[in-house]
Give the backbone structure.
Amino acid sequence: MDFTALTVELLKGLNNLTGSYGLAIIALTIIVRVCLWPLGLSQQRSMRAMQVLQPKMKLIQERYKSDPQMMQRKMMEFYKENKFNPMAGCLPLLIQMPIFILLYAALISPQFIQEAGNSHFLFINRLDTTLRGSAGSSYDGVFSVTPGDRFVIYKKVKIQKGDEILDNVKISSKNAVKVQGDIVPGKNIDLKISLDDIDLNFSELTQVSSAEVEVQNIKTREVENVKFEKMGDSILAASMPTNTPQSQFHYDVLILIVLFALSMFATQKIMMAANQTASQDPMQAQMQKMMGTMMPIMIIFMFVIAPIPAGVLLYLVVSNIFQIIQTILINKQLEAEENKK
């Protein structure tokens, strides 16, 4: 099952409802966070319980520090007695990681780039762009390339079959275009398409002499109209001039990274304040404070280096804002429950 394609289809469906792919990503974020609300409640219960139980846990660790096996057994008995699951706080993060990976894969996939890669939202120029992206000029007869670039068929192709021209012929795979040899900027790039990937009868395939194909470079999102000529019995081949792409710095993506850092910093602060108790170990509180400060800085550094699409950053920002609201509401709910007890 192609989960990336399913994610793109889900975004298309949400786009049809909201009228914007940016709003579709926000809607997807809210759907995911609402579905994870019970786990968020369990996470905060676990964190508050951890603060209350911490002094007793520390006593067990000190008492049996010379016998690790006994310490482990006593800790498990302590967890069972107090109905405490130390892994409950990690579960929401573990579930969100595959969702993050799927969304990342969807927004850099050829399907999304062809469907809505140039979609803009608020100050975001393109939802598929990264902080330092390379761009080429489409339909100028020259591909801007770097080693390792991949190419896809942008639309249905036009086939020359004898004296007849067939428009909008389907191709079995968007990835039917293959690179022959190495990619060297400044030198012609050789592309090929297997006749087996063209959706025609065998009797028609033997009559195919050429094809006009709109080919897209996934990395630069550049589209060129390429003329393929038949070579041998089973290959359509083409050669295109190339140049070195110009790297661009996208300030809209930088703004998203800053917004993510600020929202994550606020999330960490609110969660620490919500779960801090009088019995908390001062050293542990200091470590949590340090982590709450260092974690956003580390992630910013990672996002500056890693090519994260703007749409994924939008998802993360909205998710953090939702987390802040969720933490405040759940904290009020837990305080009300504790007051009743």
User: Anything to note?
Assistant: The mean pLDDT is 76. The CA atoms of residues 149 and 219 lie 6 Å apart.
